[in-house]
From TrEMBL:
Keywords: Hydrolase, Magnesium, Metal-binding. Mg(2+) binds at T56, D57, D58, D310, D312, S313. It comes from the Bacteria. This is ADP-ribosylglycohydrolase. InterPro entries: ADP-ribosylglycohydrolase, Ribosyl_crysJ1, Ribosyl_crysJ1_sf. Its cofactor is Mg(2+). Signal peptide: none annotated. It comes from Allokutzneria albata. Belongs to the ADP-ribosylglycohydrolase family. Coiled coil: none annotated. It holds the Pfam family ADP_ribosyl_GH. Binds 2 magnesium ions per subunit. GO terms for molecular function: hydrolase activity; metal ion binding.
Length: 368
């Protein structure tokens, strides 16, 4: 099926905006236990982003991933030089400036020229340490030459832009490479490859979410059994809970005793806390599979955010998945109206999509 540039552009924007919405929803409760969240926000937990929906390092680094990839794409098109990982590595070092400086330098270009990005929002310790020591690194880290053995979710939470590579296998490979720049364990970089592949399959190839997760599970099994098993567990739990929810609906319809069950925080707890890569991806996939229709986007993010773990990262990844699946039109207007940097996030997402479909975009913005 030929790519429809308009549809893909909407899904590119939806992927990044959806991730940012999940990030903003989960940020206020990231370091809280579920009982603390409910005590603070009520029995349903946090249900809407704050009036000012502030993004965290998850969305910041996603934007810098996209900028590095698009710089590589433009350079490859015009100069025949293709090295996305090296330029994303430089892009992450540029992101570090936003965490250490208070405002852009007079000669700043690209994302570094946007003063709104100069905000430290609880950045991950692993990323900070690696990038602060980058001058001592003689070669760009990759899965074969890891810089550490980190399994943290800081690799997968920023990998969605790799999904807009030309093919599913390229998306997988780039996701792994981008995450391995800072997270050297297979459990740190393989989930990023799986996320990128799923994003590509639903946004570009128009696969169902179930089909995309299944294909990514098979692919990642070759690199990291832990990630493959986490995805399989998420898929199985989502299917079981969906069946229980359907049984409950039928019971109510026919006046029978209502059975218990359905998507819940109990299933999230079985998948882990999301602090490591496989768990973060599994929680996001479970939440998305459990609420895969467009109108249930807010419920998916609520489920992904309300647990005793890394709430902003898991909700952000869930938002990436469903935004890529349904496009920006499925995102709640009210939530978008609260979101910090929504204009920038939207444009970068559309630029990613344009690079994949061969449509025109402002390539000069990525020439530096």
């Amino acid at each position: 099926m030929p790519l429809d540039p308009t549809v893909v552009a909407d899904r590119g924007a939806g992927c990044l905006l959806g991730g940012a919405l999940g990030d903003a929803l989960g940020a206020p409760v990231e370091f809280m236990r579920l009982d603390e969240i409910r005590k603070e926000y009520g029995p349903a937990g946090i249900t809407h982003p704050p009036r000012l929906g502030l993004i965290t390092d998850d969305t910041q680094m996603t934007l810098f991933t996209a900028e590095g990839y698009l710089r590589a794409w433009v350079r490859g098109k015009h100069q025949g030089q293709w090295g996305p990982a090296a330029l994303v590595w430089l892009s992450y070092r540029r992101w570090l400036d936003t965490q250490q400086q208070r405002a852009p330098a007079p000669d700043a270009v690209g994302l570094l020229a946007d003063k709104r990005l100069y905000a430290s929002r609880a950045p991950g310790v692993t990323c900070l340490r690696v990038l602060q020591a980058a001058n001592e690194v003689t070669e760009v880290p990759d899965p074969e030459h890891p810089i550490n053995d980190s399994r943290g979710c800081g690799g997968v939470m920023r990998a969605a832009p790799a999904g807009f590579a030309p093919t599913a296998e390229t998306a997988y490979g780039l996701g792994c490479e981008f995450a391995a720049l800072t997270h050297g364990s297979p459990a740190g970089w393989a989930p990023a490859g799986a996320l990128a592949m799923i994003v590509h399959l639903v946004a570009i190839r128009r696969r169902s979410l179930v089909e995309a997760v299944d294909q990514a599970t098979g692919r990642v099994l070759r690199d990291d059994r832990e990630t493959a098993h986490a995805l399989a567990a998420a898929t199985a739990l989502a299917g079981y809970d969906a069946a229980k929810a359907e049984q409950a609906r039928e019971a109510r319809a026919f006046g029978r005793r209502v059975v218990t069950g359905g998507p819940s925080d109990r299933s999230i707890e079985r998948l882990g806390g999301g602090w490591v890569g496989p768990e973060a991806l599994a929680i996001a996939v479970y939440s998305a599979l459990s609420h895969r229709t467009p109108e249930r986007f807010p419920d998916a993010l609520r489920l992904a955010a309300n647990h005793s773990g890394d709430s902003d990262s898991t909700a952000s990844i869930a938002g990436n998945l469903l935004g890529a699946l349904h496009g920006a039109a499925a995102l709640p207007r009210e939530w978008l109206g609260r979101l910090e940097l929504s204009d920038l996030i939207d444009q970068v997402g559309r630029d990613l999509a344009a690079s994949c479909t061969g449509s025109g975009f402002d390539e000069d913005h990525y020439r530096f």
